[in-house]
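Figure 3 (text version): structure tokens given as input.
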């Protein structure tokens, strides 16, 4: 596999609980190469990594140990994982509005984000209404941003 395939595989095997960054995967692959546990080769313009005989021997010797993706999945707070995924989705939508939205759309998005931030802090303060009141909708809640 190449590095991004490894990232996707770890993400899938951990049920989304662990998505390592390229900045963490590629140095580990280099370390494993230096230790002789994997070898790299060019294939279709990509650097693909394979286990060496020493790498297979290592994995066989440690086959009964928990796999890192299993540990990550078991330790994951799926509510937190879902919240993080939702936040990334909101971030992607914000980027789209920032890149392609009109001035009015950008201003509307800013208001939504200000309101969302206030509502999130209210949740932490255990002061969250089920519906925004008229003052909150107008942005006049008496609290500092």
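Below: residues designed for each position.
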């Amino acid at each position: 596999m190449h590095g991004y395939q490894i990232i996707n595989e770890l993400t899938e095997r951990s049920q989304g609980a662990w998505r390592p960054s390229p900045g963490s995967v590629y140095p580990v692959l280099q370390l494993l190469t230096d230790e002789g546990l994997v070898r790299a080769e060019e294939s279709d313009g990509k650097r693909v990594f394979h286990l060496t005989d020493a790498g297979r021997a290592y994995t066989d010797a440690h086959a009964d140990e928990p796999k890192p993706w299993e540990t990550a999945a078991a330790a994951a707070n799926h509510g937190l994982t879902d919240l993080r995924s939702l936040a990334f989705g909101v971030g992607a939508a914000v980027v789209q509005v920032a890149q392609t939205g009109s001035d009015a759309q950008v201003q509307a998005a800013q208001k939504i984000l200000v309101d969302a931030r206030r509502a999130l802090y209210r949740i932490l303060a255990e002061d969250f209404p089920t519906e925004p009141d008229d003052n909150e909708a107008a942005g006049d809640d008496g609290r500092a941003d």
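DSSP finds seven helices and two strands in the chain.
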